[in-house]
Amino acid sequence: MTSTDTAVDQPEVVQKDRVVIRFAGDSGDGMQLTGDRFTSETAAFGNDLSTLPNFPAEIRAPAGTLPGVSSFQLHFANYDILTPGDRPDVLVAMNPAALKANVADLPPGGVLIVNTDEFTKRNLTKVGYEANPLEDGSLEEQFQVHEVAMATLTRGALEETGLSKKDAERAKNMFALGLLSWMYHRPSEGTERFLREKFARRPDLAEANILAFKAGHAYGETTEAFAVTYEVKPAPLPTGTYRQITGNTALAYGIVAAGRTTGLPVFLGSYPITPASDILHELSKHKAFNVTTFQAEDEISGIGSALGASFGGALGVTTTSGPGVALKSETIGLAVALELPLLVIDVQRGGPSTGLPTKTEQADLLQAMFGRNGEAPVPIVAPQSPGDCFDAALEAVRIAVTYRTPVMLLSDGSLANGSEPWRVPDADTLQPVDPKFATEPNAPDGSGEFWPYLRDADTLARPWAVPGTAGLEHRIGGLEKADGRGSISYDPANHDRMVRLRSAKIDGITVPDLDVDDPTGDADLLVIGWGSTYGPIGAGARRVRAMGHKVAQAHLRHLNPMPANLGEVLARYETVLVPEMNLGQLALLLRAKYLLDAKSYTNVSGLPFKAEELQDLFLNYLSGVHA
Hints:
By secondary structure, the chain is of the alpha/beta class. Helix content is 36%, strand content 18%. The protein contains 21 helices and 22 strands.
């Protein structure tokens, strides 16, 4: 064979600026692991990326059924991206259920890779296929279809390992990973290292999975079915040390960092609940940083222990999701009355009640604002991306410690499980927060007593006295306290004053002014959001601007209190549009507080907004055509 012949035989390498891949299969097919490994190698390669895991709530959903489909979508690019992508360019379907659940999202001309071994008559019937779509020509008319007998090929690659047929077939997700890694020129060393570490106690399984991975890679190299491979060059990210990070991991690291910036021991008291449990799991690994984790028997015990830790001079933290917030509400109210620092993290999910445990939603905003008896205001902070969860945790702790108050941090399922590249900050650049513990009696009358509700003139925060400090003995509790002295008081005028003081303390919290992204400075439409809608809103705005239209974007991190300049910002725009994954909760608050006709656009499907969806929405408003 001549050198010219060799060059002709090599697959064509097509340069792409961005690609969206979706792995889909049965909940037991390892799609989340497959997607996570492809993501890790993509992060190591230097692409910007964003991910969307999507999986059933059941631990083991019925095999081969539509409710049992698990998927993982990854968007990676050679430039800064904001979302996991709307539609996949490549769909890997491991069975008929995965195909039927996801093929409608694949655009015409998209690449479809199908595991043919699972397309049996029984599996086809189970999801309502009357005929095999791989044989009736319906797929070839629309997509670039690649039929691959993944289970058969995996068994063949592992034949000499001595593994049973069942155990060998379990590695077919690594075969798929190897094939996609070849198609997109992903590095493989990290995956091999990961598998050896994951199966350190079963070296035979580690080597089997590595063999399956290599078999998938080799299949891509040797088969004539794939005439094209793709290359996405690294993104020009700012200089620094990067790692892939999920929102839950970023929250855990933020809490650890907050312990260092405040100098306080960290105590996490929590009850496991989807999708917040990974914060507890991650923090439990960091005892070396003076972190104590307590898995309580229920939600109430979790927050009770955290509040007790705060009373004892620690940084008390509790994590939960919407149903758990409802159970914790009485103790949050107690923390308001005690005026002690407490971080309450709510990783929102679809509701009401048990609702959609593994799907995302933003429907807890009003619960965070008002979900307690009496006038019990709390600050609310919301991160906008997985990496931003780190900074949001630090900001929430700053407020809690400085102003002696519980703080609600509202993340959600798409942030918690989604991932992106995160530049690791220099620990020396993190701003310290002084707890300013009380150390001596403070009575203004010179009596030498300690008054637990005597307030700081600037912050209205009461002193934080660690129990056991000589001369600072005091009693606190849920009954109303006399201003200053802290004795129990039923006096009407005192109660009125204390309610107003607690409210004024929250209203007076210093938060940054709201930044507005308005490139031309004269847009008529302002789109304002909070939390994880940042990415879809930003991507939709980019598309509309690329078409020559003007649109402004603003995003709220602080939902209570809101930025001081928010009223002035809202007044500058003819139309204010608020997309939310609820039925219009932020829009309701903006209408009530600023008396403006904010337009609400809502989605409670359990999935994030698509950039294309918001692009069309913005264009409709700009053209005056909207509901």
